[in-house]
Amino acid sequence: MSRERPRDPWRLALGRFAHNRAAMAGLFVLIVVTVAALGVEWISPYGVAEQDLARARQAPSWDHPFGTDAVGRDLFTRTLHGGRISLLVGVVATFVSIVIGVTWGLVAGWNGGRVDELMMRFVDLLYGLPFLFFVVLLVAWFGQSLVLLFVALGAVQWLTTSRIVRAETQRLRGEEFVIAARSIGVPTPMILLRHVLPNLLGPVLVVATLTVPTVMLEEAFLSFLGLGVQPPMASWGSLASEGAAALNPVDSMWWWIVFPGALFSLTLLALNFVGDGLRDAFDPKTVRK
Fold first, then answer.
1. Which of 56, 82, 107, 110 has fewest C-beta within 10 Å?
2. What residue ranges define each of the domains in the chain, with the CATH number in brackets?
């Protein structure tokens, strides 16, 4: 009798993800938005800094689908370009948080004992602090830099990742393949890199997907405070801030806030759909037998 080959868990997870209609719709929206943001120079006939004062504050039209701003810049071009900055902030800051969280969780979960106790009590302490307030202080103290924004936002998002990685590492430490590797004298760094980390990719990928929209929202909040992305660059948060400042009962330029805000909301919704789909796909309870 031939034995049934074990099914690849990654292939099973991707199959479950592909059958999730909401997740696939979110992934499609993300691909379209990302391609449009990266290719804005080929999509729009206007430059991101191109001004036409004769068409300033113009409502949406065939020439300018999203209207123009106070100095005649095409808002469609600025919105797509702002999406490039917002997505970059979300991805880079999330990468920073994943690196810190995975490293912290691996060390705590693998060592256990007093080391684990001290490290996780430090995480509990940080959970009780208003981290966004510290981001504001960092940006205000060291200056408004895009690189600092990446680091500051990423440095406050690693706590949940560290807890998840720590719990998974503790579980994997007791698995037979890890015990066997330790018994034959495989160095600890090699065990972590070749046996533990690959088994953490699923949970870490889910956390990363759900962290990106959180970081983007925080960047938007900082932009409303004037501490986010600075001119001449623009993000969806800074564009929405400009639009909110332009709203007035006399001459309301509604398109300044509606279009950037709508694209921002659509992208955040798509990211959450993808994150929920990945979470369900990698959840062992959803495995189809």
1. 56
2. 10-48+62-286 (1.10.3720.10)
